[in-house]
From TrEMBL:
This is PGG domain-containing protein. The keyword Repeat applies. SUPFAM superfamilies: Ankyrin repeat. InterPro entries: Ankyrin_rpt, Ankyrin_rpt-contain_sf.
Length: 716
């Protein structure tokens, strides 16, 4: 009977690149497939199975040509028979060195292949691969406990300890036990600990972690691996490079089961023994395992649980009667402070229930209330503000209260919460030194209201409204002006600045507008004698000045004719007043008069007007460039407002041919000339009023002949 050939697809070649992970292409002629039958055991004439071990594990024959031909025929036969996986595996190992074949088979868990290589003596178990791992490391990392057992079995006992002590040659420089602990493979760990001394068991890797620490570094699982290591005597007092021990690591990962196991008395006793405190009848609380702190940072397991909001772990730790609730880190922060900073609501609630001290502060004098207010943690603030003995007026190293910090950072909700609490405590006459969180909110006739109000206003007069205005926090100002009983909108700081003056000085348009709308006095002066318009002009805040002084009917003219130098269209019909009018002002005429008077106000020792200050400021610009926008803005604002007050606004400014108009302009127009020279002084040193200094014969730049319909031309 002739040999029967298996049915095969009509293909000229097999392309294994259809699997991108195998960058191999094998071309073969299926016509020569029958030649491979001679190399199959027993010469069967049905399609046999393909055993790569018979080729890859056989000792070298010394004849490379014969081995190459045999390999090629076997590949062809396997491919034709459909054993693509075996072909890939065989091709992958075909050109590898024996030790590389050994690494590959350990990774794939090929026990028989490893046996064959070890039996042939062609593999080197102690050599390292490109990742710095030897066979022992690789078997432990891959969880190949049978292969690891084979390696141990074939290694002389006297050589085991030195082999197991060897670390990987690349970071993190771990032993086989470290890799097994990382995978919490209890079978591999059991094999390894049987042949390790205590010193080997507690050896550390490049990060300073022992096998026990590595096993604890996971959010769940690992109980069996940790139990094995503890039973074999793994140290619990060792700290890694960050200063953390196994309990801190488990707490930071929120692993409830591991934390519960590590809180057992036997672990605490071992810790004291390792610290040589076992002879003490009653060790102090800070010496207990549960309160162990990291070297350098002083962070405890409780601190780690609070920072990560691992509330279940937090409850476990708090159940230990030796726990120190207010343990401090290197910056004197408590677990409550770090939980407040992180916004960990559950952690804050648990710590408060366990009587954590809310008034302790860190090295910057900031308390938990400061921490929550600085980041706008509204839910955490609610819990903190429920504590009766909370010090609302506590100040940090910069003399800022929690309310001040919330205003600086623009957290309007936090500001509202704190102000409501202050108001409530004043109304109910709550003492500021009640002893417990659950005490009833009953009155005391001798309440120190001044201390509560101190949370809003400081001794120098500076209050949270000044702070919000200085930083331009319009939303916060909108909240603050609603508390008229606690805050005066026109209150002054040590430099006699009001909130409106501070907003003007900083150029905070939105904050300035809100204060004006809320009825802030615009004519109040600071210590230098300047009004809000003086300080805005001196600082050159054109956006604020333009928004405050120019109404919609004059804005288009100002933008195109004055600043851009273009011929403007006819101005729109003016409206009386703007949305900037104070809430208690109902007439646009009154609003125009107020702004006109502010432009004419003089201040300082030399009786400067806003235009004087703006003119002088142009000489101080960087690189000597003289900026004229602010003086021109003030000139035209004064002109437009003066015309409106005198009734010209009803004519839409279409008055350029009017003699009365031309005369009025000469009387009203401002005083900085085209060269930006300083305003002239009288003989006695006082400044000539800027709205009176003008040559009555000067060309004002108005011409009715440039355009039909009488328009404006740019003032030179």
């Amino acid at each position: 009977m002739s040999k029967m050939k298996p049915d095969k697809p009509n293909l000229d070649y097999l392309d294994l690149q259809q699997h991108p992970d195998e960058q191999v292409v094998i071309q073969m002629s299926l016509k020569e497939l029958d030649l491979a039958m001679d190399f199959i055991p027993n010469g069967v004439d049905t399609t046999p199975s393909f055993d790569t071990a018979k080729v890859t594990l056989s000792p070298p024959s010394g004849n490379d040509h014969v081995e190459s031909a045999q390999s090629e025929r076997l590949i062809r036969h396997a491919a034709g028979a459909g054993h693509y996986r075996d072909v890939k595996k065989f091709v992958k190992t075909l050109h590898l060195a024996p030790e590389e074949q050994l690494f590959l088979m350990i990774e794939e868990g090929d026990l028989e292949g490893v046996k064959g290589i070890l039996r042939a003596g062609s593999g080197v178990p102690l050599s390292f691969n490109e990742d710095g791992l030897n066979c022992w490391h690789l078997a432990a990392q891959s969880g190949r406990h049978l292969i690891l057992g084979l390696l141990i079995e074939q290694t002389p006992p006297e050589n085991l300890a030195p082999i197991l002590e060897r670390k990987s040659t690349q970071f993190p420089f771990r032993t086989a036990l470290h890799y097994a602990a990382a995978n919490v493979n209890s079978k591999v760990i059991n094999l390894l600990v049987l042949h390790q001394t205590i010193e080997m068991l507690n050896a550390v890797d490049g990060d300073g972690n022992t096998g026990l620490m590595i096993a604890c570094d996971r959010s769940s699982g690992g109980e069996q691996a940790v139990e094995i290591l503890l039973q074999k005597g793994a140290a619990v007092s060792t700290q890694n490079g960050q200063g953390y021990n196994c309990l801190m690591i488990a707490a930071s990962r929120g692993n409830v089961e591991l934390v519960q196991r590590l809180l057992n008395p036997d672990v605490g006793t071992r810790y004291l023994s390792e610290k040589r405190l076992i002879g003490m009848t009653e060790p102090q609380r800070h010496q207990m395992f549960v309160n162990a702190s990291a070297d350098g940072t002083n962070e405890t397991a409780l601190y780690q649980a609070a920072a990560g909001d691992h509330w279940k772990v937090l409850k476990l730790l708090m159940s230990d009667r030796n726990i120190i609730v207010d343990a401090r880190d290197w910056f004197d922060r408590t677990p409550l402070m770090i939980a407040a900073v992180k916004g960990n609501l559950k952690a804050v609630q648990i710590l408060l229930m366990c009587h954590a001290d809310v008034n302790l502060h860190d090295k910057s004098k900031r308390s938990s209330l400061h921490a929550a207010a600085s980041l706008g943690r509204s839910k955490v603030l609610f819990e903190l503000l429920m504590v009766d003995n909370l010090h609302l007026d506590g100040k940090d190293i910069k003399k800022d209260t929690a309310l001040d910090i919330a205003c600086q950072n623009g957290h309007s909700d936090a500001v509202r919460q704190i102000l409501d609490s202050i108001k409530l405590r004043i109304e109910r006459k709550l003492p500021n030194n009640e002893e417990s969180r659950g005490s009833q909110m009953t009155g005391d006739k001798d309440i120190d209201k001044k201390k509560l109000r101190g949370a809003c206003t400081h001794e120098g007069g500076r209050n949270c409204l000044h702070i919000a205005a200085f930083h331009g926090r319009a939303e916060v100002i909108q909240t603050l002006v609603g508390y008229r009983g606690l805050l005066d909108i026109d209150s002054r700081d040590g430099q006699r600045n009001t909130a409106l003056l501070l907003a003007a000085e900083g150029g905070h348009t939105a904050a300035f507008k809100l204060l004006v709308q809320s009825g802030a006095d615009m004519f109040l002066r600071n210590a230098e004698g300047y009004t809000c318009l003086h300080v805005a002009a001196k600082s050159g805040h054109d956006d604020l000045l333009r928004a405050f002084l120019i109404d919609e009917d004059g804005a288009e003219f100002l933008e195109r004719a004055l600043l851009e130098g273009e011929e403007p269209d006819r101005p729109t019909t003016p409206r009386l007043g703007t949305d900037w009018m104070p809430k208690d002002s109902s007439l646009g005429h009154t609003w125009n008069v107020v702004r006109l008077l502010l432009l004419e106000e003089t201040g300082g020792e030399l009786a400067y007007t806003p235009l004087h200050l703006a003119g002088m400021a142009t000489e101080d610009r960087e690189e000597g460039r003289k900026r004229k926008e602010t003086p021109r803005l003030l000139m035209w604002s004064y002109l437009i407002l003066a015309l409106k007050v005198r009734g010209f606004s009803s004519q839409s400014f279409d008055l350029t041919r009017n003699d009365e108009f031309q005369s009025l302009v000469r009387d009203l127009l401002s005083a900085v000339n085209a060269d930006g020279e300083r305003l002239p002084l009288n003989a006695d040193g006082t400044v000539i009023h800027p709205y009176r200094w003008i040559d009555r014969n000067a060309d004002l730049g108005f011409s009715g002949s440039r355009r039909s319909g009488m328009g404006w031309s740019r003032c030179q």
